[in-house]
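FORM 12-B: Structure-to-Sequence Request
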């Protein structure tokens, strides 16, 4: 019990001594997580709506890829991207290894299938009568998809929350492709890993508290969006 008390005390001390280094880690965590979630949602939600409403060749194959992507191990994503972006790899000339850009790419790969899969389930779960009425409307496909997404907005909000949750807690992919470089690619999850390895448990807990607060605030905001009525 004395050990836990000491760790908690060290955590409070680390939070009280909040300085530029921790602020930089916090800022990069927010940027990487929010940007990757935004890109994953902007691409994944329309894809999910299309998979739910569309009838086209290759739909089953794309759906399978989405389902596989929803459960793909993050460390595998990091490894594959590392091979692609390594100096002697096919995209090595881009110089993306151990950069925040590569970390965003890795997290987009993780977030996009979540956004698409959850959205497809939400739209596909609308009442059959609603889907029949939507199908009967003489509107362009994009307009129908927008209406369907609005009707299933709570499910779409859940897709956004799940996508953000996937990336904010991710450590394997960003550790591999980002390298956990101080002042450049270190985020809260990789900071927790580093501090834990060096037995600085108070600092690790402090980083965990910040990570939890970020997740709590974003989830509350997204939850309010999902409950907000749309229209006059």
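FORM 12-B RESPONSE
SEQUENCE OUT:
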């Amino acid at each position: 019990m004395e050990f836990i008390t000491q760790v908690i005390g060290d955590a409070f001390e680390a939070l009280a001594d909040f300085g530029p280094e921790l602020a930089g880690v916090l800022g990069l965590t927010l940027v990487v997580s929010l940007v990757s979630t935004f890109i994953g949602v902007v691409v994944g939600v329309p894809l999910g709506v299309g998979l739910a409403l569309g009838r086209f060749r290759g739909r089953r194959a794309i759906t399978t890829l989405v389902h596989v992507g929803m459960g793909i191990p993050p460390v595998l994503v990091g490894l594959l991207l590392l091979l692609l972006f390594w100096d002697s790899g096919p995209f090595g000339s881009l110089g993306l290894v151990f950069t925040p850009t590569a970390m965003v790419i890795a997290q987009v790969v993780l977030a996009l299938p979540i956004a698409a899969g959850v959205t497809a389930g939400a739209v596909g779960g609308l009442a059959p009568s609603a889907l029949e009425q939507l199908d009967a409307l003489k509107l362009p496909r994009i307009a129908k998809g927008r209406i369907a997404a609005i009707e299933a907005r709570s499910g779409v909000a859940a897709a956004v929350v799940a996508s953000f949750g996937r990336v904010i807690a991710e450590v394997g992919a960003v550790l591999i492709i980002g390298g956990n470089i101080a002042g450049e690619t270190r985020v809260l999850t990789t900071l927790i890993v580093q501090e834990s390895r060096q037995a600085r448990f108070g600092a690790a807990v402090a980083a965990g508290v910040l990570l939890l607060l970020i997740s709590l605030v974003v989830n509350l905001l997204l939850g309010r969006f999902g409950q907000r009525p749309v229209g006059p």
